[in-house]
Amino acid sequence: LAVMCLGCSSEPTKAPASNTEQPATSQTETGRFALQRMLVPARGWSGDAQPVRLESTNLKGSNGHDGKANFWRALFASPGRQKSEPFTWSGVTTEDTPRGVNHGVEDTYNPANRLARPFDLNFLKVDTDKAFEVAQEHGGKKLLEKDPKVNVGYLLDFDAQSNQLRWHVIYGSDSIGKLTVLVDAS
After folding, report:
1. pTM score, two decimals?
2. What is the DSSP letter of 93?
3. Is the pLDDT of residue 8 over 60?
4. Would you tell me how many other CB atoms lie within 10 Å of the CB of residue 45?
5. Cβ atoms of residues 105 and 54 within 8 Å
6. Coil, helix or strand for 162?
7. Region of residue 60 (phi > 0: left; psi between -120 and 50: alpha; otherwise: beta)
8. Euclidean distance between CA atoms 171 and 140, whole angstroms
9. What pLDDT sits at residue 176?
């Protein structure tokens, strides 16, 4: 009884002030990290969910120069249900997106569409940090020396014609960019 009384306290313990504050910094991660974070909720949405596409966006100070981004968007497809659903991972809170994994609205999916073929995650051997290194050797380094403010974006898809999982390393702010280097992701 004495031990129980000593272990009890009528005053609640207060957490240190440093634990209650949320960090305001932006978390950047590689594409594979973000895709793996989105995989569990995607499989919760549909057990046969497979990724179709993954792309990065640079928000609030992120530039993609290290093979990382603070916002990733993936499209997952369920061939069995013939549905698709977008998922996002954000390492920063914005007006439009909270930090962490979120999902969008379910849409139709046609498994016969060769442009939107899902891929097996086991074939993803090369992550964005390595893809960036390869792209740097193929013209990216010269471009960044000329203009160090250029954003670098990443797009992962499966090319059915060449039967290849590939990273598009895109130097520039639009979808075409100033330079795009394709890197075999397998």
Report:
1. 0.83
2. -
3. no
4. 16
5. no
6. coil
7. left
8. 7
9. 65
